[in-house]
């Protein structure tokens, strides 16, 4: 089992009316890998994520996680049982709660079925909160948010909120995270911190990643392998420098 890719997607196809948003795409993500998924706007990247993570039902194709066929599973089931999580382009946090509370809630949503089981009264509840708080604090330090951990998330910058969201995704100890444009709309300093956090999660926590990203500098610096989509089909796949030098990619994505 350990020799299998963490994620293997075969012949995935999804149409909306006459438009083939994803057309017979096959990719894989190796265990422990950070892979990039790039392409021009409208190339099918987000639809590919939707079909891979249970948000949309593919017309055909197979999705295997850790060797298990999860095609047709719901987003919630994949997250709970498969431990594959995804982000969205829109950042979502609990704005009235502080940073630490955001992470604790993210952890309890996966670990315990009912809110009361974590935040209720009694020794067991206190023990659960203590365990979640300890993990939350470790991740807050990792994300560089320690000094603002007691501030309401809504008071922080958009970039800091992205870091909260990312740290929250690490609370349930996922095997694989799919990130949809994690660097969009944030300043260079926060981009640096997001990159450091992704690398830490990969190397120290063993999390594999598939990342949609338009920032080519980030893609080439952290991704071991890059996959390119264009008009719903896989155009190219290879090492970052090979992709940058591929004339087809330059024409389709980089402007020639």
From TrEMBL:
Q: Does the keyword DNA-binding apply?
A: no
Q: Which GO terms describe its molecular function?
A: ATP binding; ATP hydrolysis activity
The ABC transporter domain extends over 7-256
PROSITE patterns the record matches? ABC_TRANSPORTER_1, ABC_TRANSPORTER_2
Keyword terms of this UniProt record? ATP-binding, Nucleotide-binding, Plasmid, Transport
The record's GO CC annotations read:
plasma membrane
Q: What family is it from?
A: Belongs to the ABC transporter superfamily.
Q: What is this protein called?
A: ABC transporter ATP-binding protein
Source organism per entry reads Rhizobium phaseoli
